[in-house]
Every structure is written in structure tokens, then in C-alpha cells.
Amino acid sequence: MKGPSDNEQWRFNGLPRHPDASGKQPEYLPNSRKPDVEQSLDWISSLTDLVLCIYGPAGIGKSTLVRHLLDKLRSVGRLGASVFLGAFPTDTTAPETVIKTLAHELGNIHPRAIPKIVEAMNQCHATSLENHLEGYILEPARSLNHPHPLIIIVDAIDEWKNHPVFIKALAHLNSETAIVKFIITSRLNPCTSRLPDIEKIAMHTHPLLPISIDTMKVYFDKHLETVPWVDGRRASAADVNKLANLSGGLPVWASTVISLLSEQFSESPPHEILSGILARQQVGGSEGLAELYRDALLRLFLSPDAQRYFRLYLGAALVLQEPLSLSEFSKLVGMPPHLVKNIHSALSAIQTRSPHGSEDTVHPASTRFHLSFLEYVQAIPAENTFAISAFDSHSAVGLTCLNQIATLPLVSSAQTPGFSLHGLQGYATKYWPFHVSHGTNRSHDEWAKTVHCSTLLAIPVDAQQRWATLFLNTLFPEAEEVMAVEEQDMTSILMDIGNNLRKDSDHWAFEVACLEVAVRLGSGCDDAWCKLGLCYYGMGKRTGSPKMFEEAVLGYRRTLELQPASHPDRSQTLTYLGNALWLLYGCNGDISVLNEGISHHRDTLALRPVPHPDRSASLNNLGIALWTLHEHNGNTNALNESILHLRDALALRPAPHPDRSMSLNDLTIGLLVQHEHNGEIQILDEAIDLCHELLVLHPSGHRYRASDLRMLVKRLEKRFAITGDEADRAEIQVLQRELDE
Predict the structure, then answer these.
(1) Which residues are in the Nephrocystin 3-like N-terminal domain (predicted)?
(2) Which residue has the higher pLDDT, 14 or 559?
(3) What is the pTM of this model?
């Protein structure tokens, strides 16, 4: 098989890349996880389960174990790709982006897979996650003709907001374990965490237990030798024994202790720090980690001023989306550079990872600190001196970014399309909508009182347009020409940007951030609220997330409030709202949600009398919603009304209407349910006639023909069981032969 052409390589290089995760990582203690490694390798050698989930509490050493497995797999050519999701911004990373990042890793390790990956880039745009997994991962791996399945490693999957939909989509690959398999790590066992459709995935779970006390002693014996002890005051054998017991078998606890003893961050010599640690009673677990973190912070930041600066620094780092130099970060947080540098250095005592260049660069906190530490500073009570609010941090960072907008340079069409800014100006250009939308409330009364609102309103129109042009060119550096924005107010500018970004799911987080700010600025603009609803609805359709549908419903409800009965778009908004509520019901099973959706579909139908061009769609939507109500409570009246509306919809969609096949399919299924309730053979006859028409509309080679054939076979078998008609038996045999071909 040939390698990629120059053009394919160029296209491939445009895929999202894994954030820099190089630098210092926790070491794997030799043989510390020997049984876990052996069991993992045994699973890899089998062809049964698609997914191995290694789970255990924070700090147990999951990432260290999978890095060890990764090295073993790479050495024998079995590694397909790997990602550490703790290195990705959890709120701004779309599921499609993670899959494309995995594809980029796959192509880097196996260049012969690049042509198939580029083929997926051409074919998978705006398709389902299942199609993305098949196109970007499965088919490229298959093209390598590897004798054993390639292993894809997804570490810290539960640290990523969209992990439920990614895991759900993996079920599509259940039958492909000869080609590809997945290892994922999580704090919780997915099979007991109520993830949607988790039972449909061929998954083996492996709990990771604490490391043995003997292994922890070996670790401490080795690393205590590196501590810069003073006056010969070293750790004794008894100290090592107590440290090993206090660790509770958590590697992160042990490594944090060594860091605290090794860093020159306070006036206390190492032996005094060690005495303080040994005096504690809490053993391991989250409580033991919290106690260790609290004591470390109290030693690092003694004065109230130092603690205030710590909160400013870590709060900004917690919400930071891209690395910034120490000097640029100091501008972002409004702190003198020497204080930023001091805090940055002091916190190295708590960091568990050292990204490349971290000595003079501030990276997003998730790439430097263990999740247990970040959760600790956000979970402690607000009155605690070290408590950090992500909302408040977004608010502060967002305001600093906004203040940069009025000073942005002019960008002319004569400049190169890839023109972009760097440092704080570049960061502010790209991320101010994200931070403002995460650090302010939608409520008009609350928004109007914020400094963010007054700052935005004070920015001149030409500066707003300048920002929009730079923003789009930052997101699309390969664009052939500079994208100009001509709208005359920020609300319209943000909506226009949303339209530009809707075509690319990788930029969904930026799209929704712009629209969130648009509805704050234009709280009375029904179009802005509707676009926000559509944005959330689209992500809900792609991910199945109930949260996305809830947000879509809120957006559509507000749109409806702003549209009087005579508004020309009111029926469309009612349709959007009814559909979003129907899908939300599918996620949460709340019957009141479904009933509200049905009510809105009835209102829509009343606004679309014959011969309204969208009446058939309204009839179909109402029919499906009533059918769903019947499924919930067995209401026969709802089923009968559903069939009436579905028949009327079909009548309004004569061939060659593009939606006729959809109406045929919906009515056929509804009729079968109705037949099961009343046993009337003529209803079954009607369903079979409709199935025959579906086959005419879906000739050989059509993607739905196989499912249509199976549906017709089932209905014929049901009629044959009732009537014994040999013609049905003969047709079943003919249809089955086509299915078997």
C-alpha cells in the first residue's frame, strides 16, 4: 500500500493536533502494577470486548499505567493512537475534534493510513459520530491490514464534558475487534454510572486498586534520597514506613510529598515539613489528599496578600484555554510579573506534570496539576482563603480580554489571509466571548449591571468589525481571503459569526459563546434567541446530551415570548420547540415535557392550514409525538389520533415528494402498533402495502433498502401466521434471498 501523496499529507496536516503533553510525567514504578499489566495484555490479545475500561479514584495511577501500556504497545507496533483528555479544554472540545485528533495520531504512527483519513475528511463532514469513528479510525486502521487489532487509548475520559456521547458511539464498532480496540480510563465504572446505552457496548471493566505498601516503601526509599536535607536531618526507616502507610497506596499523594520536601518554597527545612506530614492521621483517599493540599498551600502562601494573588493566578490558569508567556499572563491577571513568576515557581511543588516550556509559560491548569487538586480548590467553601470560583475567574479574564478589543490593529484585504495576533491580544481576540459567556448570567437585569455590558457598548463599531475579522481569520487561518464583517452592531456581528461557524462542528464552542453574548446584548432579539436554540439543538442531536436539549428549549421558549401571535416565524419556532421537547423527553422520560411538546405541535398545526407548504411536516411531527405518548402510557386514543395525522401527512406528500419515504416508514410502524392493539387484519394489509411502496422508492443499492426488506419480511411473517397464505411465504423467501446476497 502506497504512502500519502503530497496533497494528502497537506490535508492531513490540517487535522486538530494533540495539545503538548510532553515534559515531566509521573514515573511507572517497576512491577508496581504487574498483575494489572498482565490482565490488560491478556484482554488485548482476545477478540471479545471492544473496550477495556480501567477505573479507579483520582490519584490511583491510571494515567501512569496506561502510559506504560502505551510504551509496550508502541514497541510491538500495536499502538493505534492515544489521547490524554486532561490536556484538552473540557468545555470547548467537540466529540468530532477528539476523533479527528485520534486520526491525526493514528496517521503519525501509521503514515500508510493517511489516504483513508483524508478520504474521511471529504466524506464525514456534518455526519454522525458513528460515521466519524468509522471513517477516521476504523477504515484507516483496516487499510493497514495489520495482523492484530490496533489499540486506541483514551486517557482521563471522564474529565471531558462530552464523554458520554463518545462512549455511546463506540457501540457502532462492537463487531470490529479484529481491527481496532479501545482502552479508556475513568474515575468511575461506566457500567454503574448510568451513562446512556452503556449496556450496548462490548466492554470489560478493570478496577485499579491502591499500590501495595511495600511498593510505596521502595518509592519513598528512592526519592527521599533526592531531597535536599539540611544539617543531616534525614528521613528514618520508621518515617518511610509511616509515609507508605499514610499514602494509602495513592501514587499522587506520594509524589506530592516528595515535591513538597524537594522544593525550596518556604523558610521551613525539609525535616520540619516532613514532621508536619507525619503528624497527620488521615490515610490516603480524597480526604488525605485534601489535607495534604491544604497544608501545602498554607506553607506556600502565608500572608493574606500572597493568598489573594494565589487565587488570582490559579483562577485564571483554571479557565485558561491556551498557554501564555509569564509576561502576557501577568497582563491577563493584572499582577506584577515578578509575583506571577514567584507563584508559578512555588506551585511547582504541587504540580504532577510539567508541560514543555512550563518554566516560562503558564499552561492551562489541567495540563499541569492533578485533577484532585483542581477539584479541591473549587470544592472547598467560598469563605476558605484558597477557594476558587470558575465563574468569577471567567468573569475577570473576560473583562480583561474585552478591554483589549478597542486597541486591535486594522486588518486590510491587502494583508495575508492568515494574519493573526499573538500574546494577550491574540488570546483576547479568540476567547473573550467564551470567557464572558461563562462568567456572566443571561438575565437582562443582571447583565445590564455588569462592567462587561458597559465595556462592550462603549466599543466603537469599527473596532467591533475589526475584532470580528481578526476572530474569523484566527479560527480559519487557511482561508483564501480575509473575512470581512459589515454589520453595524455587536449583536448582529455575533449572530453573523455564529452563521459562519455553524458549518464546522469543531468550532461549536466558539459559535455558542458568540450567540450567548448576542442574547445578553440583544435580550429582546427573537432571532438571536432562536439561533442560540438552534445551536444547542444541533449539538444535542449530535451528542444526545439532555443538557443541550434543555438549553435549546430555553432558547426557543424565549424566542416564542418575543414573537406575538401574528409573527410570521411563530409557527417555525413552535416546531423547533416541540421537536426539542420531544427529544428531551427521550433523554429524561418526563411526561410533562412530552405533553408540552404535543401542545406546541397542535398550535403549529393550527397556524398551518391547507394549503400551507409545511402542513405535512406539522402533521408528521404531531403524529410522532402522539405515538410516543401512547408508548409511554398505552393511551389508545393517542395512538389512533397519531395514525390519522400520519395518514394526512402522507396524503400531502405524493410521489416524488422528498419526504414521502419518511412518511411511509412512520405510518407503517404506527399501523403495526395499531394492529397489535386491535388485531384488525386490514390494518396489517395496509402496512404491508406501504412497505411495498417503500421498496419501490428504495431500489437495489439504496442505503435503506436492507432495513425496508427486513421490515416487510416481519410484517409478512405476522400475516402468514394469521392467514397461512402461501403467497406470503413465497414472498418472504424471495425477500430473504435478496437480504442474504
Answers:
(1) 40-187
(2) 559
(3) 0.87
